[in-house]
Each structure stands twice: as C-alpha cells, then as structure tokens.
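Here is the promised in-class demo. Please do not try to memorize the tokens; focus on the logic of going from shape to residues.
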C-alpha cells in the first residue's frame, strides 16, 4: 500500500512500504535470521535518541527504494524484523525529527543515512550538493546555513549490505601471539603496497587478496617483520575539496563505517564479499606468523564540521554522537578534521567497543593503533587518563588482551600526552623519531636524549609498571618524509597536493646531504645511503618496539612530498622496481640482517628497563656507557658536546626467564654510534668488559649481506668511520 505521508516529511508520497514485525533491539545493525523457527529475514536496530520516526530503506538492483517503518522503540533503539530480506540486500535509514541547528538538532529525512553498524558497504560517497543536510552558501560551500535542504541524497551515497553470520571466524589457535619484546611492526597501505608489485596478479593488486598473495607475504617474512600495521581499512569517504582538485583521500583517515572493511580494497565484490576476503587475508598472514594491527580512526568521522555532508551519525542524532561547541551549531574540534566523536556518551562508547570486538572476534585482527588517541581520552574538554574509553578497554576481557597502540596526542589544548597512557598501552614515541633524526643530521648538542632512546625511553615510560614495550620506536611513518626523502630534502615539496605548500609539517629535521633532491654527484647518494643505514641500525638495535614503513627498505621516494595523504598514485605506492637496483637491494638485506640479529639475541630486545647496577662481583652492569678514550662516561660527559656514544649491553642478568623459569643469558654487545663527519679513534674497553670484540655490523660498508667478522683485542684503539654505526659482539 502507498506509504502514509508524515507532517513535515519532505519526501514525495507513493513509495511502497513493506510489512515489519516487532523484532529485537539487540544486536544493533542488520542481522540476518534463518528459518525454520520463523520467517527468514533481517532484524534492523538503530540507536536514535530523540528521533521522531525511523524507516529502513531497501534498494533493488535498479535503485528502486522500498521502506520499512521501525515502529518499535526500546531504550532509545528503534527496531523491527523485515521478512524476506536476505544477505546481499542493500539498505540505509531515514530518520525524522526536528531541524533546529541552533540547538544542535539536524534531523533531515531527505538524507539516506549509512547504518553505523553496517558490516559491509556497497558503493562510494559522491559528495554532490544533495548529500548536505543544509542549503550551502556559495561561493563558499564550507559555510553552514540554517535552512534545511530537502533534496533526496539516496542516489549519491553508498548503502549498507546485509551480511550473513557465517561460521568462518578467526582460527584462534593459528594466531601468532607474538610477545611485545619480539615484535617488529611494518606499517603499510593495503592498496599502495601491492599496486605495483610485479608478482601479484593485476586483478589482485591494491586489494586484501593482493596483500594475502604469496609474493607479498614472502617479502614480509624475508624482512623478518612480525606484524603489519594497516593504514585505515574501515569504510571511508573522500572529501569534496579533494574531489574538486581531482584527488582522493588515499590514506583513509576519514572513516564513516566502523564495522565494514573498505569496499574499494576488495577484489571479490562489495555485496558482502569484502568481508570474507578480509578474513582470508588475515588468516594467510597468520599462517606466515604475521599479526595484523589496524590503524583506526574513532576520534572523528567523514561528516566533518558544520559545513560537512549528512552521511550517517549527524542525521541519526547529531547531539548524541558528536561533541558540540558552546554554540551548538558548531562542533568541538580536537582533531583538526571538523568534528570529534563524543566517546563519553555511553552509546558512542558502546559503538566503538563493539566495533573493536567485532574486528578481533569476527575478523581476526590482533591489535589496534588509535589515531589521535588523546581525543578519545578527553572527558568534556581535558585529556583524562581515567576517561571512560580507557577504563572500558582496561576491563574488557577481549580488548585488554590485544595489542593497543596510542598516537598519544591530538590538536587540542593539552593534547600532547607522550608517556602518559596507562600500563596496558604502547605509544608512538615521537621523541625517538626526533632524537634519532637530530643526532644523525648533527643537530643534537649532546647525547643525553640518544642514551634514553637507545634503552627504551625510561624517562618517559618507567613508571606505573610500564616496560620498554610501551615505546613504539620509529624514524619515519606514513605521515612525513620517507626515509630516502629524509636524507634527500631539506624542505617539503607538496605542490601536487594543490594546497600551495600549506599542508604538511615544516619541522622535518631532515638533511639533504648537500643537494636538494636527486644528485649526479656520486658522493651525495653514497652519503645518503650511509645515513639510511645509520638510522635503520639505530632503530632496530634500540630497546622498545621498532616500526618500519613500507618501502623504506628499498628506497621508496615521494619526491619530497611529506603529506601524500591524497596521492593515490605512483607518489604514494611502493615502487618494487627499486629492488632491481643493487644499492636498494642491499638496504633490504640490511633490514633482514638487523631483524635476524634482534630475533636471535634477547639482549637486543630486552623486555625490561636497564638498571645500570652491578650484576656480580666483577662490577659489570647491564648497561654501561663509554667515551672514545675507552673510559666510562661521567655525569659531566652527558652534557658535553659530543657526536659519539659507546653503549655496552650485557647479555647477563636479563629480566626474562625461559618456560622452565630458568634465567636467559645471551652474548654481550658494544654499540658505537658516531655522527661526526670525520673518522674517530675509539679505545675499546678492556677487561673485565671483554677479552676481544667481534665486528658484526659496520654501516660504513655499502654491502651488508655478510658481517665483517673482524676481531679486535680489547684495550686496542680502532678507527671508527665518519657517520657510522658499529656493533660488536663481546668475547669473554
């Protein structure tokens, strides 16, 4: 029968209604139910506090729309069971209520809304004018008006997809379960990692199946990484300002569907097939011993600020999902992206934790890296380490057992929180990044910071029972220069982004080694190669959890672009042809050697902080520091201008125990880091520290396929090459 027209409903009459049974308020989202206990169909449940009515809109293959009114309301959840709706069906919601932007109410039933709990999404957002809930001022579309736009958005937005509850969840017995101390993270982009891979079939490149391909996995296992950290794979939308410039949001930090794998990364289809493809990718990585960590964006959504489109939560309950400013027409923006999710609201907190558990229990992932995590720890305005989000995670029997990594800052006042997160958490340590960059470019006035970073950053994390695993060490990340560009450019070159160079950081702490960009002078690329080796060695020989970035091991360049978030092209993709060049193949081999050293030697991946105290009657300590003259450093030496640091790491007295409770012992090592531009004589410490020293690594050498294996008696003076790292194994 024709639908009844509601007062104030701007949509035309005449659309067909379908019969709806009462259904259940749990679980939220769309859940298919098989017979024979009842008719086969789908239960729909939507939290929409304050709404006056809710309809499920079902879409045929030809785009035709039928509507099912949800008349049952239980604890602010609108729900109903629609017989005959099978897996693969496409749907969305229309929600009616007051249009009153002055109080933060932005209901507009002309806008088709994506289910926040949709487990698959078909289609992409086209940010046409019809997708905005308000009439926009021109020529400035960013200015929000108070007049409602009554044009139908359904043709321009993707739809949720009903997904069957298949019995193909993760095989928990096959999860690698890599201890933190043994973890080596490799940050990659699902699409960009395989788009140019010659051994991945063309139809699989840029997809979950491409990442699961044996050729892609072989590279990861060959490097010795234990976990991939995937840039956002939640369903996301592209911003209008990028589309107007012919660009796209490549990185994906613009989420709109927290339960759905991004459909564009699926080779199999987007009518639910992307779910199975993602699960198969995870299982393939697990079978290779590689964990899967997701970079997740729960701090804001793709709806943006008050000038943004109405795609989902804004039209469901704007005041419930988002933090509003003192003027409720505006949003509190602690993210720099226009809005901030109000995670202190119980229903929003539930959505986030439901999403996290879904990805662990249903999709098989092993952990999460939280973008702008400080925004999630804000209560009303201030960051609070007792915030509801952190408290809920700490007690959740599923989430407290997975790897949790915070990006420990946001853009609001007091948002920089490095070292402040609770013991359960690890953190991106930007102090490590800045210190290593400054030391190797010659900008560090002394070696104090380097000493802390090499030993796990105890100045930041040695409190409240935290361990070195709290420090995720990195020199580069997706955001900023690649490692090759870090040694090739003194300034950013972001012209291709179309923002007149305003985007991207100006504090890069880079050094171009004497020429901006590519150079024909053979001395320049030679020095750059050595600097790359120095920073990789520093990263992988430091205590804490190292993180590499895809392509750094083969000299990937973005041409000096330090903000390639919108470069879904050769600028942002990994260039596998570089491995055909000997200089970059040797860098890959160096990474593999360093991860192998780390894997083989517990002394190089300690699970506890150093004490600096004697281990026995001989006076040897678990860590000791040496000057170039072979004497131990005194307090004053830490404050003296120096480009050289010697660190002795003992393999005795390690904090770890084997499965039988017996102490673990290892070799001891001497690490020399020399950032000076001239060679340096270094007196090797004599007994009781060592009888002799075997050279395992020298970054001054271009070929790192085999260790130098030279032996030097203790008490002798060696010549350390300019700008180099040396690692010696101690013989006693």
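The designed amino acids, position by position:
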């Amino acid at each position: 029968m024709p639908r009844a027209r509601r007062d104030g409903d701007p949509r035309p009459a005449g659309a067909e209604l379908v019969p709806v049974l009462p259904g259940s308020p749990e679980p939220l989202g769309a859940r298919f139910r098989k017979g024979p206990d009842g008719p086969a169909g789908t239960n729909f449940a939507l939290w929409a506090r304050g709404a006056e009515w809710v309809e499920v809109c079902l879409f045929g293959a030809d785009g035709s729309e039928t509507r099912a009114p949800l008349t049952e309301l239980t604890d602010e959840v609108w729900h109903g069971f629609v017989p005959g709706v099978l897996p693969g069906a496409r749907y969305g919601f229309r929600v009616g209520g007051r249009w009153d932007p002055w109080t933060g109410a932005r209901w507009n039933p002309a806008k088709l809304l994506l289910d926040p709990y949709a487990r698959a999404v078909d289609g992409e957002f086209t940010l046409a004018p019809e997708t905005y809930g308000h009439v926009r001022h021109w020529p400035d579309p960013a200015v929000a008006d108070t007049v409602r736009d009554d044009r139908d958005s359904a043709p321009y937005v993707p739809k949720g997809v009903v997904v069957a509850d298949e019995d193909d969840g993760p095989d928990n017995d096959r999860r690698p379960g890599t201890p933190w101390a043994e973890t080596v993270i490799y940050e990659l982009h699902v699409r960009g990692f395989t788009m140019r891979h010659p051994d991945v079939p063309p139809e699989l490149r840029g997809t979950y199946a491409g990442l699961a391909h044996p050729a892609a996995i072989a590279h990861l296992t060959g490097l010795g990484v234990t976990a991939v950290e995937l840039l956002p794979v939640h369903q996301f939308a592209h911003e209008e300002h990028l589309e107007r410039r012919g660009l796209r949001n490549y990185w994906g930090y613009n989420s709109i569907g927290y339960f759905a794998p991004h459909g564009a990364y699926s080779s199999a289809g987007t009518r639910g097939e992307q779910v199975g493809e993602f699960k198969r990718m995870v299982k393939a990585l697990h079978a290779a011993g590689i964990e899967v960590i997701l970079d997740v964006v729960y701090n804001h959504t793709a709806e943006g600020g008050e000038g943004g489109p109405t795609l989902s939560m804004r039209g469901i309950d704007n005041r419930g999902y988002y933090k509003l400013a003192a003027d409720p027409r505006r949003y509190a923006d602690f993210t720099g992206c226009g809005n901030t999710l109000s995670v202190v609201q119980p229903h929003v907190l539930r959505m986030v934790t439901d999403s996290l558990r879904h990805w662990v229990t249903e999709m098989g992932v092993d952990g999460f890296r939280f973008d702008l995590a400080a925004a999630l720890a804000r209560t009303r305005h201030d960051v609070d380490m007792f915030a509801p989000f952190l408290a809920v995670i700490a007690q959740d029997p599923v989430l407290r057992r997975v790897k949790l990594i915070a990006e420990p800052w946001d853009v609001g006042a007091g948002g920089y929180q490095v070292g402040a997160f609770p013991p359960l958490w690890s953190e991106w340590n930007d102090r490590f990044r800045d210190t290593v960059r400054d030391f190797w470019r010659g900008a560090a006035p002394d070696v104090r910071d380097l000493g802390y970073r090499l030993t796990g950053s105890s100045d930041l994390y040695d409190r409240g029972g935290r361990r070195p695993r709290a420090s995720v060490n990195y020199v580069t990340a997706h955001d900023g220069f690649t490692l090759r560009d870090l040694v090739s450019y003194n300034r950013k070159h972001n012209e291709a982004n179309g923002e007149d160079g305003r985007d991207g950081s100006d504090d890069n702490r880079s050094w171009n080694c004497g020429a901006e960009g590519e150079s024909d002078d053979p001395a320049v690329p030679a020095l750059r190669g050595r600097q790359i080796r120095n920073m990789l060695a520093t990263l992988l020989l430091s205590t804490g959890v190292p993180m590499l970035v895809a392509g750094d091991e083969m000299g990937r360049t973005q041409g000096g672009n330090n903000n390639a978030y919108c470069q879904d092209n050769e600028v942002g993709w990994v260039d596998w042809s570089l491995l055909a060049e000997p200089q970059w193949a040797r860098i890959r081999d160096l990474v593999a050697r360093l991860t192998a050293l780390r894997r083989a030697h517990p002394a190089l991946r300690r699970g506890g902080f150093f004490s600096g105290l004697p281990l026995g009657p001989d006076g040897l300590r678990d860590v000791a520091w040496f000057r170039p003259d072979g004497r131990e450093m005194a307090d004053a030496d830490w404050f003296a201008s120096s480009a050289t640091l010697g660190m002795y790491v003992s393999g005795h007295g390690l904090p770890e125990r084997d499965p039988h409770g017996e102490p673990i012992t290892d070799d001891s090592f001497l690490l020399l880091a020399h950032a000076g531009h001239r060679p340096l004589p270094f007196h090797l410490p004599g007994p009781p520290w060592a009888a002799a020293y075997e050279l395992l690594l020298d970054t001054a050498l271009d070929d790192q396929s085999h260790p130098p294996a030279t032996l030097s008696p203790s008490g002798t003076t060696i010549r350390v090459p300019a700008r180099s790292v040396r690692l010696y194994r101690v013989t006693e």
